[in-house]
Amino acid sequence: MKIALAGNQNSGKTTLFNLLTGSNQKIGNWPGVTLEQKRGIIIGTDYELIDLPGIYSLSPYTAEEEVSRRFLLEEKPDLIINIVDSTSIERSLYLTTQLLELDIDVIIALNMTDILKKKGLVIDVERLEKELSTSIVAISALKKTGIKELIALIKSKEYRKNYHQLIFGPNLEKAIARVSPYLKGNHKRFIAVKLLERDPLFESPQIPSFEVLISELEKEFGTDIEEAVANQRYEYIVGIIKKAVIVHDVGVNSSEKLDKVFLNKWLALPIFVVIMFLVYYLAVGVIGSFTVDLVDGLFAALSDWTRSSLAKFNTSEWLISLIVDGIIAGVGAVLNFVPQLIILFFLIAILETTGYMSRIAFFLDRVFKRLGLSGKSLIPFIVGSGCSVPGVMATRTIEGDKERRMSIILTPFIPCSAKLPIMALFASYFFPNHSGLVSAFLYFLAIIVILISALIMKFFFKGNSGAYISELPNYKLPNFGYVFRDVKDRAISFIKRAGTIILLSSVTIWFLLSFSWRFEYGVPVDDSILASIGNLFSWVFYPMLGELSWGATVSAIQGLVAKEQVVSSMAIIAGFAGDVSEGTMIFSPSGPFSFFTSSNAFAFVVFNLFSAPCIATIGAMRQELRSTKQMMFAIIFQTGFAWVLGVAVYWIGNLIGVLL
Amino acid sequence: MFFNKNKKTNRLKVGEEGHLSDLQLNQKAVVLALHNDNPALRRRLLDMGITKGVVLQIKKIAPMGDPVDIELRGYELCLRREDMRQIDIKVLEDENSISRQSK
Q1: Which pLDDT band, with edges at 50, 70 and 90, does A11 fall under?
Q2: Nearest chain A Cα distance for residue B21, angstroms
Q3: pLDDT value for A509
Q4: A292 and A231 inside one domain
Q5: Where does B12-102 sit in CATH, by number?
Q6: What pLDDT digit, counting tens, does each position of A38-65 carry?
Q7: DSSP string over A329-385
Q8: Helix, coil or strand: residue B36
Q9: What pLDDT, on the 0 to 100 scale, is given for residue A464?
Q10: Span A163-200, pLDDT tens digits
């Protein structure tokens, strides 16, 4: 059995999905549309649950609605679980009326029933069930109540069957009845309504005097049918709510009190800056560097132990070198940063679940609009500080095509978690007492880069700007179950990358570093294959490094594979397994990176942060832009901008150095 | 009047008609009609519950004056003023003037 989970944004859909499926989840793509989806198996059953994007309607006006609609119409799920936020039931049931027009049974999971009382609402669930003529289970995804009952109802198959209640006025129902017989296949009622609404995605049918029918209806309603249908849906819902819901006045709620502070005319911006500063300062600065030292010591010990134990077994020297100087050095250099990332992921997940993100989008929209963006662009940017790939995908909620495309290209400018090792490595070595400050500064630099790029890109991108339509949800206490799960998933995926893509690249780098073009092992590094490749391109980085360094060149190029690979590569090239992140070994006076000073180090970090993102992100950009040409534009733009900025930083740094 | 930039002088009175974008903090109004200049936007507004006859109230205004947070149908929706120009309304109540009278 295939079950779809559908509901509005902020309705608690993800929490319910996690509760219903436990750990049996996988992420994949929908056939036909390349869009990430989550699938899972409902606990104690063999039913497959598919998580649809959060939507308000089945109109095809955002990418997400289009996908949900296609899934429901083409993939033929056997059942829909419609999650409804009981505290904003009137708007939520609008989607329900559309789902009930499909030839699919619907169970309503009436969520957030635990806070109804606080909101002054009383819902007569039985009455609501009778009026809507579909099964309802009152639940609280947060408090985990009603979940067993919901699963039991699905298993028993004793939920109400969908027999298509006639919810519209007599004229509209008559028109639907006239159109339906001409339709073939499933979902006749849904398609009939869409045809009357002149939905562009359905072919105009061979129905005698169809145009006459429509114009007669329009004359009668005094509006077009699209508006009449929406009006009648809401009239129907209001009628039901009058019978099944009682509203008491509870005065000003706590969200409004909080908004008096967080959305205050003078305080909003300073509070935002302080919160974002704390997030990155905590992750990269104080707590972060402490944990890195800890893990770093472990890897140094592991490396020494491996080297000596392998030597005991007379292992050949090249194998020891491969394992210690290649694999442990490369993978270890990246794994050092896992504790920092966990802190960063934790803080971002908290921001995401509290409802504060919608506020940031709300109060910064005015600024972003000036730049040709939308307030909603901020959400991909913040998600992107974890990983650019979901960040780029989060642009889907942006209405306007122009704003969306610009946001897709700008999101990779935000330093993602894979860039954090680069920042942390250089900051802790060259600015040991201010590493947190330097990292926080780099994030604010990213914001400035985005602002300037947006102003430049405004001239390249034509097209209509969209509207800003967004719900302002109530503040919620962070759901720690969700937060921990999210942090765990992201940390595991980072570690997995270290075990796969970074491992593979490390072995490759070790190989290219250990052999010459004539395949002689153990040549001096300057004669290695890697060195000769690096020497070909090292002139590119000369203006920002003041040095022709093949090592820095090949490391920066490897950022295309994965940004953390820059650090891995430098660690391997420096040729030492232990104590990598401390920077002492990588930048040792006799090593290949001894030429780094604070100004060219800063320049190199800036280049790596803002140049073309990793392959995975480039792929996501290609997919979301739906244009290879625009993707190429984006990469060239990003890399060019990064290069100019890197050179500028180097020379400004030198100038400051001279003046001081 | 040239130097009087006090916005409150433009505040719509109860019973007056105008665009939703003219409505100010704490004013309550009923929707009379939606324009059809931008069909996609109109569809979206309808979906979010802005239909003829619905009562709404301005609850919050972003620190920089735009967008605006509107309460309707038991939830809060944020819109830009330029998009709110698509909606005709009639003022029903003004909580500011009520509180002033009660004082």
Answers
A1: confident
A2: 14
A3: 86
A4: no
A5: 2.30.30.90
A6: 788 999 899 999 988 888 999 876 777 7
A7: HHHHHHHTTHHHHHHHHHHHHHHHHHTHHHHHHHHHHHHHHHTT--GGGHHHHHHHT
A8: coil
A9: 67
A10: 899 999 999 999 999 999 888 888 999 999 999 998 87
Residue whose structure tokens are 């990430």: A36
CATH number, domain with residue A50: 3.40.50.300
Option in B34, B76, B80 nearest A467 (CB): B80
Picking from A253, A362, A365, A377 by the largest number of B CB atoms within 10 A of its own CB, the best residue to mutate is A362
In which domain, by residue range, is A470 found?
A: 271-659
**Phi, psi for residue A584 in degrees, rounded to 5:** -60, -40
Long-range contacts: A190-193, Cβ < 8 Å, 24+?
A190/A58, A190/A73, A190/A98, A190/A101, A190/A102, A193/A101, A193/A229
**Do A74 and A50 meet the contact criterion of CB atoms below 8 Å apart?**
no
> How far away is chain B from the Cα of A543, in angstroms, using its nearest Cα?
42
Q: Which residue of A has its CA nearest to B77?
A: A471
- Pair A227, A313 in one domain: no
Q: What is the pLDDT of residue A32?
A: 34
Say if residues A579 and A302 touch (Cβ distance below 8 Å): no
Q: Tell me: pLDDT of A469 over 50.
A: yes
Determine the 3-state secondary structure of A403 from DSSP. Answer: helix
Q: What is the pLDDT of residues A564-609, one digit of tens each?
A: 889 988 988 887 433 444 445 778 777 788 888 889 999 999 999 9
Q: What are A475-497's pLDDT values in tens digits?
A: 888 878 778 888 888 888 888 88
Cα(A520)–Cα(B73) distance, integer angstroms:
76
User: What is the token pair recorded at A35?
Assistant: 């869009």
What is the total count of domains within chain A? 3
- The amino acid occupying position A101 is E
In a domain, A266, yes or no: no
In degrees and rounded to multiples of 5, residue A560 shows phi and psi of -65, -35
Which of A156, A183, A210 is where one domain is finished?
A156
Please give the model's pTM, rounded to 2 decimal places.
Answer: 0.84
Distances (CA, A) of A540 to A531, A534, A638, A643, A651: 15, 10, 15, 9, 16
Residue A425 sits in the same domain as residue A573 = yes
Residues A134 and A175 in one domain: no
